[in-house]
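Input (structure):
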């Protein structure tokens, strides 16, 4: 029904607008609300981005490799962020 590019651009714009509103928030409630609403942006542009990336490659080993590298990079990045934010406890 709608093209992936339209949803991708709309999701990015939605996130940017609500992130800016949250940046200029006057109280905690306004910031929490804007962060919650901004979360709908990635919910729109991440699946649309995967679809656009999938449509740009013909079926075959190269498309499979690109999808594997995307998934792998996402998990490695999230693990690295988690390790930085919550370093493992050391026994001393």
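Output (sequence):
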């Amino acid at each position: 029904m709608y093209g992936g590019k339209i949803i991708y651009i709309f999701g990015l714009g939605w996130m940017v607008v609500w992130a800016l509103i949250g940046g200029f928030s006057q109280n905690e409630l306004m910031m929490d609300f804007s962060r919650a609403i901004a979360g709908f942006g990635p919910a729109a542009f991440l699946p649309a981005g995967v679809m656009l990336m999938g449509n740009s490659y013909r079926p075959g080993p190269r498309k499979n490799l690109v999808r594997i590298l995307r998934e792998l990079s996402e998990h490695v990045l999230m693990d690295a962020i988690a390790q930085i934010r919550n370093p493992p406890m050391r026994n001393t």
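Notes: The radius of gyration is 18 Å. The helical segments are 4-23, 28-38, 40-55, 61-85.
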